[in-house]
Write a structure and sequence with these properties.
Length: 970
């Protein structure tokens, strides 16, 4: 038992108290001298401790075994001596026996008991006092107890014989020995062992220290010599006085010092030589710079003279060219013969080509001389683009090309900038596309590239299906007088100035120009520019001039065999909030018309006819088959601007005919005149002009922002129940600008409490709210509504599914509007439901509605268009509000991310749907179609339990949001 203590001590030293990693790292930072001593002493210390512990353990075990052997002998002797006394029952004879045994210092007590356990005799050492004897009885916790049997006396002689009879036990002798003397001997052994270890370690330390000095002293000398060499003392004397391996290092350092000294001398010589050459070169360069500066001055003067000459000559040539073109027009009126008319056409075409070359030379001269400036004006971008395409359309007709104009719904149309330069660049790109394309399409796409604090970056691309351009030729396109094919036998003419001029004009408008092209697959040229978006007040004359009456709610069928043209028409009808079906086959037209006549007939059909379908017999067949199915209005779009062709189609049964690419205002006018014949006549000719005639004071205030209330909603008390801070701030600001009194509620419970506490004219109710949602709050209000006319309740929600909207109406709501809410629609809805007087200005809700619109159409019309303008964009007259809303989104986005990603990891799709819906509401102001469509897809997938693409869609959503916020912050 006692001999296990040293092993436990060793365990606590080497295992339980092992040095932490920090101590090990500290040891590694010691010097070589210290580390040598430490690493040498460490194994010696371990060995000394192990050996010392081993020998001490043996010594202590020997002492303990000796005590045990002695106790066994004493107990055996006592049993033998007590045998006769117990056999004869003479207990008194035991006293002298016990006395002789108790004389031993280690014997503490003696006890003799019979077989029944009765104590026959008990005696204690005289060294123990009486109290200790009483407490001890026969045993003590620090003593050793030995027991031996006592046999009958008459059997004592037989114990050593070979008799098979067992001895008879008549009692037991018990001897208690003290461990005090044994423990003292053990402690003495430990002290001697520890002293031996200390002496051994001390002797080892002295020996190791002397050895380490013989190793580290030469190293220190070598280190000091290396430091002196580093400081530039190459004549250092090094003598370590050693003959070990360090002598080689000493020789190497001496050789290195000699080499460095020699290299330094050679380097200095080279530096001196190079300095001399450099001085000579600098003097030569200075002389050449003076010559080049003089030559440059001469070149600048010559270039200025050249530019002025070209500008003057171009201007002088334009004067007679205008005369030539004027007399050509006069010649046409003299009833020339067919041959003369052909000559006149050739002269006019040549004159126009020459005039184009002169204009290009004049432009490039102005650009090089720095005379071109940006001339800003207010203009409509759609009108600007459509005007260019309308002018170039006849050229496309000659090659039977489809010219398509596509303007995305998020592009701001009313801009303040240089419209003339936009037209010039676009004209050059579209004319080039038509020139280098023999069949297929030329598609012009206008899109929103980026939005900044005060300006908007617009991108216009022109894609064709022409010959394409090889990569090696693309780098030369935007250089002056460069062409892909500059050989004398080239097929296409031109000066090679158009793209160079376009590049300079785009850069003047803080934009750029570029292309993507592959040989034999077509090209896509694009350019960007920065212009300032403007917002015209609905009360201003210019707004009324530019705002066409509504066509919302009508039902149409769109047909065109060209997918690009069909998509362009779809974008346009989306903006007008017209419900439509599309098809790209004539058979599809017949099937859809037949189906619609059974349910909700179309109000009109738009037929985009190809070159083949404009043939007399083909169109006649198409028109007759359609007329057998329906008598609705037919609007034909043809690749011709010839009035005779248009009259022919009218005579064949078309209600209206327009030339491709169709101008939006002309199409709107035709549709309006067909659908509402008695409607007010608008000045479409005035609206078709790209540059609106604005008042002079608006030029002094280009922001065109009306900050004052227009008073439409004066006196109307509105309760807005919305838990999303972004949407609440937006609706509050939107309605207060029109004079409404707004009370906000964060959840359904607060909305109920506010309704019960005060009077409201109308309630705008969000659907998904904490505590009590919008549907439950509406049911409570309907169940406890006050006397009189029930209060109108309008749902504001991002749930676009018709089933959801019907459920809201069944819960007691009067109408449903889909976020993002169109401001004008919302105001008109409030005025209608509260029976307030609508302003005299006609709004789109006042325009006559068609009688053939189905219930589906009516419901969707009240909820707003799926391409309604963004609230922030619609409220741009308060730029501070827009900044606050964006700031709130940036602030709340990490919380949305954490909640959605947590439910994503836990596969808790029900909770994920709630968070996604909240985020959808917070993003309802966002005018990014990609983000809108993606979050709508995620929400619908969660609602319909489609989880296959949820993870990737959520990651994609957050990536797009990060990009959007990063661009917004920039």
């Amino acid at each position: 038992m006692l001999h296990t203590q040293p092993l436990s001590a060793l365990k606590s030293i080497f295992i339980d108290n092992a040095a932490p990693r920090a101590v090990v790292l500290h040891v590694m930072r010691l010097s070589i001298h210290q580390r040598f001593i430490f690493l040498s002493l460490l194994p010696l210390t371990v060995i000394a401790l192990v050996l010392g512990a081993f020998f001490v353990n043996i010594q202590m075990s020997h002492i303990e075994d000796s005590l045990a052997h002695r106790g066994q002998n004493i107990a055996r002797h006592l049993a033998s001596a007590s045998s006769h006394s117990l056999t004869t029952n003479n207990i008194k004879q035991l006293a002298p026996i016990a006395a002789s045994i108790l004389e031993d210092d280690e014997v503490q007590s003696i006890v003799i008991i019979n077989n029944e356990g009765e104590v026959l005799f008990q005696s204690y050492s005289s060294k123990l006092d009486h109290d200790m004897q009483l407490k001890s009885q026969i045993m003590h916790k620090d003593n050793l107890i030995f027991m031996k049997p006592i046999y009958q006396a008459d059997m004592g002689d037989l114990q050593s014989s070979d008799s098979d009879a067992d001895p008879i036990t008549i009692g037991w002798s018990i001897v208690e020995l003290s461990k005090n003397e044994t423990r003292q001997l053990q402690y003495l052994s430990i002290k001697e062992g520890a002293l031996f270890i200390v002496l051994l370690l001390a002797l080892s330390f002295v020996l190791i220290y002397r050895i380490s000095k013989t190793i580290t002293s030469p190293i220190m000398k070598i280190t000091r010599a290396a430091n002196q060499i580093e400081q530039g003392n190459f004549d250092v004397q090094l003598n370590t006085g050693t003959s070990s391996e360090l002598i080689n290092l000493e020789k190497s350092i001496k050789n290195m010092a000699v080499s460095l000294k020699k290299s330094r001398q050679e380097l200095q010589e080279e530096i001196d030589h190079a300095t001399t050459n450099l001085i000579s070169s600098i003097q030569s360069v200075e002389k050449k710079n003076k010559d080049l500066f003089a030559a440059r001055q001469q070149a600048v003067v010559a270039n200025r003279v050249k530019s002025e000459f070209l500008a003057n000559m171009s201007h002088e040539i334009r004067t007679p060219m205008n005369g030539i073109l004027g007399f050509i027009r006069l010649l046409r009126k003299t009833n020339p013969t067919s041959q003369q008319l052909e000559h006149i056409d050739t002269i006019e075409k040549s004159a126009n080509n020459l005039l184009t070359i002169i204009n290009d030379i004049l432009d490039i001269s102005k650009i090089e001389s720095g005379k071109i400036r940006v001339q800003n004006e207010f203009y409509n971008l759609r009108d600007c683009v459509e005007e260019v395409l309308s002018l170039l359309a006849p050229t496309a007709y000659e090659k039977q090309l489809d010219l398509v104009c596509m303007i995305y719904s998020d592009v701001p149309l009313d801009l303040y900038g240089d419209a003339a330069k936009v037209r010039q660049i676009l004209t050059n790109l579209v004319s080039n596309a038509i020139k280098f394309t023999d069949r297929g399409n030329v598609v012009v796409r206008t899109m929103l590239e980026n939005e900044y604090e005060s300006k908007t970056k617009i991108k216009i691309s022109v894609s064709d299906t022409g010959i394409g351009i090889s990569p090696k030729d693309q780098n030369r396109l935007f250089k002056t007088f460069e062409q892909v094919d500059s050989s004398p036998s080239r097929k296409f003419g031109g000066t090679g100035l158009g793209l160079a001029i376009s590049k300079s004009l785009a850069e003047l408008m803080q934009g750029e120009i570029g292309l993507h092209s592959e040989p034999n697959k077509g090209s896509a040229f694009w350019f960007t520019f920065l212009h300032e978006p403007i917002t015209l007040s609905s009360q201003s004359p210019d707004y009324q001039q530019n705002h066409m009456p509504s066509l919302a709610g009508y039902n149409a069928l769109l047909y065109d065999g060209n997918e690009a043209t069909l998509l362009a028409l779809s974008h346009l009808f989306d903006d007008w909030e017209i419900f439509f079906d599309t098809t790209n086959t004539v058979e599809g037209v017949y099937k859809k018309v037949k189906t619609a006549e059974k349910n909700a007939p179309y109000d009109f059909i738009v037929l985009g006819l190809s070159y083949e379908e404009t043939q007399f017999h083909q169109f006649t067949e198409i028109q007759q088959r359609i007329r057998k199915l329906t008598r609705t209005h037919l609007v034909c779009l043809i690749n011709s601007a010839d009035t005779d062709d248009m009259s022919r189609f009218i005579s064949l049964g078309a209600n209206a005919v327009l030339a491709k690419p169709v101008k939006s205002r002309e199409l709107h006018y035709k549709l309006r005149s067909l659908l509402v014949p008695n409607s007010e006549i608008f000045d479409y000719q005035r609206l078709s002009q790209a540059n609106l005639a604005l008042e002079d004071h608006r030029k002094d205030h280009p922001q065109l922002i009306n900050q004052q209330h227009d008073g439409k909603l004066n006196g109307i008390n509105i309760l807005v129940a919305e838990d999303n801070e972004i949407n609440a701030k937006l609706v509050n600001s939107m309605l207060q600008q029109h004079g409404a009194n707004i009370t906000l509620a964060d959840n359904g419970d607060e909305a109920i409490a506010a309704y019960e506490a005060q009077h409201f004219d109308i309630v705008l109710m969000d659907i998904h709210m904490p505590k009590t949602n919008g549907v439950e709050a509406t049911k409570h209000i309907r169940a406890h509504q006050k006397t009189g006319k029930p209060i109108p309740i309008v749902a504001l929600t991002a749930d676009a599914m018709s089933d959801d909207q019907l459920a809201f109406l069944e819960a007691g709501m009067n109408d449903v509007m889909i976020k993002p809410v169109n401001e004008e629609l919302l105001i008109n809805k409030i005025l209608y439901l509260t029976n307030k007087q609508i302003s005299d200005n006609k709004t789109e809700d006042q325009s006559p509605r068609p009688t053939t619109v189905s219930n589906r159409t009516t419901l969707t019309n009240t909820t707003g268009s799926k391409r309604a303008s963004s609230p922030v964009k619609g409220s741009s007259k308060d730029s501070k509000l827009a900044g606050e809303i964006i700031g709130l989104l940036i602030k709340e986005l990490p919380t949305f991310k954490h909640s959605i990603q947590l439910s994503q990891r836990q596969k808790n799709y029900e909770t994920m749907y709630q968070h996604v819906h909240k985020l959808h509401g917070a993003l309802s102001y966002c005018d990014s179609p990609h983000i809108k469509s993606l979050i709508q897809k995620i929400e619908q997938d969660l609602k319909l339990n489609r989880y296959q693409t949820i993870d990737s869609d959520i990651d994609n959503l957050f990536n797009k949001l990060d990009e959007l916020i990063q661009n917004t912050e920039q």
